Amino acid sequence: MQTVRGQALVTRNGRFIYPKDQEINPLELTALINYNAQNLVPTYRENMNMYLGEHDILNAPAAQTGLNNKLVANLTKYIVDTYNGYFLGIPPKITLAKGDENDRFQTWLTSVSFVDKLTEISKQADVYGRSYGFLYQKEDASTGFTYVSPTKSFMIYDDTVEHAPLAFVRYEYLKNQSNYQAHGFIYYATKVIEFNAGHFVGEKVNPYKLVPAVEFYENEERQGVFDSVKTLVNALDRGLSQKANQIEYFDNAYLAILGLHLPTDKNGNLKMDFKTNRVLYAPQLDPQSNPDIKFISKPDSDAMQENYLNRLTNLIYQISMVPNLNDINFSGTSSGVSLKYKYLAMQVKASEKERKFTKALRQLFRVAFSTGQVLPIQDHDDWQNLTFSFTRNVPDDVQGAIDAAKDATGIVSHRTQLKLLPFVSDADDEINQIGKEKAEQIKQSRRAMGDLMDSDEDEENS
Asked: Residue 290, class by beta-carbon neighbours within 10 Å (0-12 exposed, 13-18 middle, 19+ buried)?
């Protein structure tokens, strides 16, 4: 742990610590903002640049001689989008057990586009290693929700063993005469303090009575999904660029004319454009050498280069724990068990992320329920009763699931059988629906039998 200024500390994973029940002073706040801007934000920006395809190879100095291709293999974007799509491609179900309260809760989630913003939070956590969910009061006093990037915000935790949130700082740099000064807000549990250029300039009450922001992260180290493979991605860019240079260079094959005298014009100049036609001309050779005309062959190192590039690519996917879905191993028809093995590493990674996100979401809704706007004030403790259901976005082996359900007949209950089917979301509801259909079939059968008996009686009477 390192001292930033005064009592303000920072941990190895970039968490700011301050004594519990104390308020940070302006000098310490400025020091934390400067530390975030100078030590953490450069890494955030580097990661975002890699995600956007602005890799180091593009800023490499130009070669003094030869070709200078600069190719970007943007596997970082592929890794983030694939992993985020796997984790939240199917929106998670966040529900309450009570009917009326759950309806009101779902209405609020829809009104603030919660799933869309949670997806952006998840992507920022993949890129930066962390992101923040932020609750605020709208002009009509309703509760709003959005995401905030760690490039312009940070959380301060207390110095207890639990490291509970002490304050959330959100800021922007505004130009003040000849330089830029930070302007923003500190959100404590009881109040919100506005600051500008290192001075506190205003204060208002925090209606939530809790810090209205929550940090979302994937792991305790606050590492993004591709932090461990950045050097490999840069090496792949260099390898591809060098290979492109060599291909272009060696494609320009030269014809060597050795020991022969070619015709000249009246001025003694050879009748050939050697530069355009790529010809090497050497008429004067050792008298014992035989004249020769041949193309100069290029050295063949293609196999070595391809092995190097393939090794880098495989390592990137292996270490990031995100599979290459374009790999030949994913082509064709695969069984459910086979697909599970291929996704196993990413499943392990996503399970850890799910646990961290579930914890953060529960804390977020604890804050959201505290004012009586999302739910009635008497239900403010219902954040403890929330159910979170995350579904991985993978192809379903429907036929395999149906076969498994059939094979389970007589071994497990009908309810458990239905749970084996991926397209059945609620087994109890499905059982009720099956019962209704059977009752309707019996009713229709009895009606048909009644109609048939009435018809027979009519024939006898006639």
From this structure: exposed
Q: Looking at the whole model, is its pTM more than 0.90? A: no
Q: Give the span between the Cα atoms of 34 and 5, in whole angstroms.
A: 11
Q: Which amino acid is at 77?
A: K
pLDDT tens readout for residues 356-385 = 999 999 999 999 999 988 898 988 898 999
The predicted model gives 125-138 an average pLDDT of 94
For the chain, what is the HEC assignment? CEEEECCEEECCCCCEEECCCCCCCHHHHHHHHHHHHHHHHHHHHHHHHHHCCCCHHHHCCCCCCCCCCCCCCCHHHHHHHHHHHHHHCCCCEEECCCHHHHHHHHHHHHHCCHHHHHHHHHHHHHHHCEEEEEEEECCCCCEEEEEECHHHEEEEEECCCCCCEEEEEEEEEEEECCEEEEEEEEECCCEEEEEECCEEEEEEECCCCCCCEEEEECCCCCCCCCHHHHHHHHHHHHHHHHHHHHHHHHHCCCEEEECCCCCECCCCCECCCHHHHCEEEECCCCCCCCCEEEECCCCCCHHHHHHHHHHHHHHHHHHHCCCCCCCHHHCCCCCHHHHHHHCHHHHHHHHHHHHHHHHHHHHHHHHHHHHCCCCCHHHCCHHHHCEEECCCCCCCCHHHHHHHHHHCECCECHHHHHHCCCCCCCHHHHHHHHHHHHHHHHHHHHHHHHHHHHHHHHHHHC
Q: Work out the pLDDT band at 241, boundaries 50, 70, 90.
A: confident
CB atoms under 10 Å from CB of 363, counted, come to 19
Q: Is the pLDDT of residue 250 over 70?
A: no
Predicted local distance difference test score (pLDDT) of residue 229: 94
Range with top average pLDDT, 147-156, 194-203, 232-241: 147-156
The confidence score (pLDDT) of residue 295 equals 65
Calculate mean pLDDT across residues 89-110.
89
Cα(106)–Cα(365) distance, integer angstroms? 12
